[in-house]
Target: ABC transporter substrate-binding protein
Amino acid sequence: MKFTLNRRQTLLGLGATSALVGFGLPARANTKVNVGVMRLASHAPSFIAFERGYYKEAGLDVELKYFEAAQPMAVAIASGDADFGITAMSGGLISLAEKEAVKVIGGALTEEKGLVGAIILASNKAYEAGLTHPKELAGKTFGITTTGSSFHFMAHKIAQANNISLSDISLRPLQKVGAIVGALSSNQIDSWAIQPSISKKMIAENAAKQIGLVSDYAPDYQVTTVFTSTNNAANEREKTQAFIKAYARAVEDYNKAFVDRTADADEVDAIAKICHKYVESDLPFEQAKNNLVEGSMRINSNLALSLNSVTEQLDWFKAEGMVKGNITPEMLFDTSYVDVI
Model:
């Protein structure tokens, strides 16, 4: 599905690519900004930009605000408790866009063939009972944070590709990632799909078994997006551009160190040490570093947005009746800040 940019988006978008290179002047010095984050490896650029002073150099005085699921972060953006968020599209986020409260302005984490990506897991008990492939998920339980979360969409893509009706899989909303980890580890649910920094750790600790990869069923899936309030997108362009500039710098550091592996050993260590302060801080550094490197997923350069993927997600939410059918791509996406791919 394609959509036509409105006049404002077209005019502003003409400079999107060049703006990401130079970005003109920084935001007003010490502009206070709250950034919504989760303690996941996929949020590494948030921590890198914070620790390396990229936000400050862009004129932003950033405070990190922590969340445990996508939906509460979307609510915080809409209410003004946070200015920018990086997380998956959820039904709540889309409904807030219909109310003209939030806008998706960029893309972040993405599934890419050739990289491990999110891993489909089975509990040890379910695996021993025969759940060794996603095609056997009918009649099984699958962990999600909330209805309409990225985990819900991944379950849909997995079921669709294996000719299983999603209604034949029992989805278990457990609100928090940590709660799903606990439920799978203790055999209270049968399956789940999660990014490799968590799934590989669970596999290594013999807390779950790998039965597939999400990228086999959802290649080019735009897992997370960058979003902000409609007011920021429309009326605080300087601040919004400054945030994207700082975050894009950190994305480049992250991809070079963990994904493309073109950074030298000292740089890899430096990036890993930053992330270790926020992610898997309970583990010894070398173990956490290995998990970060081996469990990395690409984050889109310059926060480019995979428009086909996010539009597919919007269409699915509408088809499932989780959001209103009258919500259009123009209501949800402001494509004037980054390239679309």
